[in-house]
Design goal:
Structural class: mainly alpha
Number of strands: 0
Order of helices and strands: HHHHHHHHH
Strand content: under 5%
Length: 250
């Protein structure tokens, strides 16, 4: 049983673990500068919005509601990624940003991480407007009162990034577990945040499908392995090795 679990863990998390560990060992905090900035910005927003003088300024620059004009919501959406919910412990948001944004920044790069995070958050923001327009009688709809509820903050971006990284590094069971957890969240407590998480996942899965379709349409590169060249190694596996483990150096 133990050996079977080890094989599963190596297959599921080996490439991802190798990529993250190598980056942190060789570059330390320099591997995740954007993530550290995001954690500091989230903590700053939390401190400021809990002050009498700071609540309204934070709302004005980073809180998005479906009742807001669309242009204003789009303007606020980038900073809304870093405004934590007032009714939830801030340490949870900080831990999510540090862990998921950090892994994504190492594995995907800084700019791709930001783009995917923004896409996931924007999908949730736009879904809220569509859901309210559909009404509570529609399975995908929302009650009118949700128009006054603030969007999810960093959680939609965290969920979207987690699913994308799992797909990129072939951690299929982990990615499926994230999706199932979000579905269960909606079934247990059907609220705006849960449905925005599902909208974020749907947007990321569409991106994954489009990326895979484009990759299949690209002609295979030529190389020393023949007309089609050698196959691309799995993420986290260095060329010339058959294991997820890094080669031994002396």
């Amino acid at each position: 049983m133990r050996s079977a679990f080890k094989r599963f863990a190596r297959r599921e998390w080996g490439p991802l673990y190798t990529a993250v560990r190598t980056a942190l060992v060789t570059r330390r905090w320099r591997a995740v500068p954007m993530t550290l900035a995001a954690v500091c910005l989230t903590a700053l927003f939390q401190v400021v919005q809990n002050q009498d003088w700071g609540y309204q300024p934070v709302q004005n620059i980073g809180s998005v509601r479906a009742e807001d004009p669309l242009w204003l919501a789009l303007l606020r959406t980038p900073l809304s990624l870093f405004v934590p919910a007032l009714d939830l412990p801030v340490w949870g948001a900080l831990a999510q940003v540090l862990l998921v944004f950090g892994i994504a920044e190492i594995c995907l790069g800084r700019w791709r991480t930001l783009v995917i995070a923004y896409l996931a958050t924007l999908a949730g923001t736009l879904y809220a407007r569509v859901g309210i327009a559909l009404g509570p009688d529609n399975p995908l709809g929302l009650p009118p009162a949700d128009a006054q509820v603030v969007d999810t903050g960093p959680s939609a971006a965290v969920v979207g990034l987690a699913v994308y990284v799992c797909r990129r590094y072939r951690a299929r069971w982990t990615g499926a577990l994230v999706v199932v957890a979000m579905v269960v969240e909606v079934l247990v407590k059907s609220n705006l945040a849960g449905k925005e998480h599902l909208a974020a996942i749907a947007a990321v899965l569409v991106l994954v499908a489009v990326t895979a379709w484009r990759e299949r349409r690209q002609p295979p590169p030529s190389g020393p392995g023949g007309p089609e060249g050698p196959e691309d190694p799995e993420p986290g596996v260095r060329p010339g090795t058959r294991s997820w483990k890094p080669p031994i150096t002396s």
